[in-house]
Amino acid sequence: MNWIAIKEFLGGIPREVYYIVGAVLIVLAYGQHQYNSGKDAVLERLKQAQIEAQQRADEAIESADESSEERALAHATESAALTKVIQDAQSSNSNAIDALLGGLSEAN
Length: 108
Hints:
The chain is mainly α. It has one domain (about 15-105). Helices cover about 90% and strands about 0% of the residues. The longest helix is centred in the middle third of the chain and has 77 residues, at about 15-90. It is rod-shaped. The protein starts with a helix and ends with a helix.
């Protein structure tokens, strides 16, 4: 490579071209910095949203578990009441269906 030829070529380019190239490089670097800052901010907001969504999901699961326990307890209570009505009907030799139909209103 002939360094003298390259120096003469670059020396023939007007000074303003160097200024413009330098300004373009500065603008590109600033734009890249802004892009990276925005991207990092969006990623941080997404992480926060994910954490909040997980917390809400955990709360919903806990609430559903509590509701499930309440429903299971209500079902067990109703089943026990109906079983008692059937056993009472069988022990008194009466009709279990009639006792159940009457027992339904007693269970509720």
